[in-house]
Write a structure and sequence with these properties.
The chain is an alpha/beta fold. The chain has helices at 44-51, 73-79, 95-105, 110-123, 139-151, 169-186, 197-203, 221-226, 244-249, 271-284, 299-307, 319-333, and strands at 3-14, 18-29, 33-37, 59-64, 67-68, 80-83, 157-161, 189-194, 206-211, 214-219, 231-237, 254-260, 263-268, 289-295. α3 (95-105) packs parallel to α5 (139-151).
Length: 338
């Protein structure tokens, strides 16, 4: 199988002290959808910036579409597509003009430009608004325009850095539908970052969970869930009882018990059947229950399992994060603007 992305020992330390990405290594096969999943500040944008030749690494190497990223940054920029977390469409140009600019920038053959733009506008359902300034677009329309801009040159590898941030669920679903169609039609490789667990779950062939600049787990969504060893029943007692974990552990079907933030996470193959026995054990131990909940393995659980923390759904964007992206955008588009 051909490798579309290969990173080795990739590291980035900002200002000699902020270790944003540390010794990250992974391979994405051609045609795969690969997800980088992690909370704010995990190092996702930094990784994308390095893989797309927008940011020099402190250490490590990366090969994208057979090209050494750091030796051939301009070639990389020509070959890949990028859709950033933040809006990069030029508000003072129309949708069509944004696409024309991108087509020129990426040297799309002249005779193909018109046809490609028309078909993308239609595909992304922005045809009717094509000749309106982008600043009059809704958030969802802008994202679709930006996706169109990102793929106008039919890139073999598309990088998406939290592209659906701020979109409503319908907008997100629509966006991913287009990406899926493009993958099917062109066998495009997609590298995406997200902190929406359900997005990564539904879309990615494989996922890397990144936390504090490290990959803490990789696998297909189902492999990652399987590693959890089944369902998780969370029991929140009204008081702590030192012997409770050991008692719960003896119940047939229970594979593991951990205490986290005052709640017991009990793993087992069939959570529903475990609940009565768990409740009974607590009652016998004279421990009242504040709550009992059952969860089938989800990526939320995977995240908790591998990082020991709840996954935060925080949409805030750090100023430094913004600076990197704006720098990248300027680098990519700067020369074309007058
Ligand atoms: N230009 C910069 N200078 C200094 N520190 C930076 C810079 N860019 C990012 N960082 C820091 O590096 C770490 C990783 O940031 P990064 O933007 O890669 O995270 P992220 O996973 O993309 O987060 P988010 O989900 O918020 O977009 C953070 O601690 C961030 O503050
Ligand atoms: Mg980011």
């Amino acid at each position: 199988m051909t490798e579309a992305i290969h990173a080795e020992g990739l590291s980035k330390t900002y200002n000699g002290k902020v270790k944003a990405v540390e010794n990250v290594a992974f391979t994405v096969n051609a045609g795969e959808a690969y997800g980088f999943l992690g909370p704010n500040g995990a190092g996702k944008t930094t990784t994308v910036a390095m893989l797309t030749a927008g940011l020099a690494p402190t250490a490590g190497s990366a090969v994208v579409d057979g090209i050494d990223v750091f030796a051939n940054p301009n070639e990389i920029k020509r070959r890949i597509g990028i859709v950033f977390q933040e809006s990069t469409a030029d508000s003072d140009l129309t949708g069509r003009e944004n696409l024309e600019l991108a087509a020129a920038l990426f040297s799309v053959p002249r005779k193909e430009v018109r046809g490609r733009i028309d078909s993308l506008l239609e595909r992304m359902q922005i045809g009717e608004a094509a000749d309106r300034l982008a600043k009059t677009y809704s958030g969802g329309m802008r994202r679709r325009l930006e996706l169109a801009v990102g793929i106008i040159h039919a890139p073999r590898v598309l990088f998406l850095d939290e592209p659906t941030l701020g979109l409503d669920p319908q907008g997100r679903a629509g966006f991913w539908r287009y990406v899926e169609e493009l993958r099917k039609e062109h066998g495009m490789t997609v590298f995406l970052t997200t902190h929406y667990l359900e997005e990564a779950d539904g879309l990615c062939d494989r996922i890397a969970i990144i936390d504090h600049g490290h990959i803490v787990a990789t696998g297909t969504p189902s492999e990652l869930k399987d590693r959890l060893g089944g369902d998780v029943v969370t029991i929140k007692p009204t008081r702590t009882e030192p012997t409770l974990a050991a008692l719960l552990q003896t119940i047939p079907g229970v594979t593991a018990v951990t205490l986290q933030d005052g709640a017991y996470r009990v793993k087992g193959t069939n959570g529903e059947q475990l609940v009565p026995a768990l409740v009974e054990t607590c009652t016998r131990a004279n421990v009242g229950l504040a709550s009992v909940s059952l969860k089938r393995p989800s990526l939320d659980e995977v995240f908790l399992e591998f990082t020991g923390r709840e996954f935060r759904e925080d949409d805030s964007v750090s100023a430094t994060d913004r600076a990197v992206r704006i720098g990248q955008v300027q680098q990519a588009f700067g020369r074309a603007r007058r």
